[in-house]
Amino acid sequence: MSLGTKDLRGSVAVVGVGLAGCGEAPGWSETEIMAAAARNALADAGISAQEVDGLVVASVNIFLSGLSIGEHLGIKPKFTDSTCVGGSSFVGHLIPAAMALNYGLCDVVLVTYGSNQRTGVGRGDAAKYKAILDPLPFEHPYKPFNPPSSYALAAARHMHQYGTTREQLAEVAVAARQWAQLNPEAFSRDPLSVQDVLKSKMVSDPLTVRDCCLVTDGGGAYVLVRADRARQYKKKAAYMLGVGSAHWHRQIAAMPDLTVTAATESGQRAYEMAGLKPADVDVLELYDAFTINTLLFLEDLGFCKKGEGGAFLSGGRIAPGGSLPVNTNGGGLSCVHPGMYGMFLIVEAVRQLRGEAGARQVKDARVALTHGNGGVLSSQITALFGSEETL
Prior knowledge:
This protein is an alpha/beta fold. 34% of the residues lie in helices and 18% in strands. α2 (30-45) packs across α3 (65-73) and α8 crosses α11. It is globular, with a radius of gyration of 19 Å.
């Protein structure tokens, strides 16, 4: 049997999602948070851990993470993957998981992530994490404060090249906070204005602390099955309509153009597989580690022209009540960000398609786009999900 990209459209579905330990989880290990999220996702689907025969995990800190989590949960998988390409990993995991399901290597895939980055990371751990990020030959001598310095470089270039303003970037953070205020699970829910963002502590010029993502604990998980089995579970399924991946660089000094990301390729691949275009998308979940991310991805994924992102998102367009709902849970800027955020994109997208998002629910949401970012605008992975009527 040979599978083409069109064969993957609608072939697998998410039937369970779960969160755990989001915000602060003092005393919890990463393994415990990851396992709790997994149990919640399995319970959401009505599946026992013993039914899981595919396990996908990514972690910066847990050595042999797939083996460790499998043992902790009592899972004996036929298929395991622990690929890590940064925060986009959990969107990217859809690709090998879908192939494994379609080729009959397994029947139920559990994808899970957890981190205690806020309460469990000491100075030694922080230094170790910084050592992972910084030993890059063309950047290390200049002592960057990464990752903020790399994203600040991209923001400064976009401002210089296209006239993007600090106020426009600040609107991304304000919109995220307004969504968070509708989400009882969000970590930061206090009022936030453009002036609050501009006046907050500078982290790496031109980005202030409110242009940067949260540092929280938290875990998430989703359960993936073949589409022909999706109706047998207790919740509505969200079907994978398209997925695409691309990366062009590792360190920011090697980025071909600081204003253009590989999302231009990953997005196009996902649209082509799904047979959809930006105008068909009802809700967007974009990896917003920094305010510049949201702006760049709106451009690169085709929602506005290159250089017009600042003007496009101004005036509350991506906030509650705006014409384009973006990061409806509050995003990494205001909801949760425990180191790698991509998992939470999928959880929120599924909840929106099921109509389970409460006060932040997007009316008649049928198609959701999730976009993951890994490294420093490096790994870009786009996935489109749809309700059953989109098949």
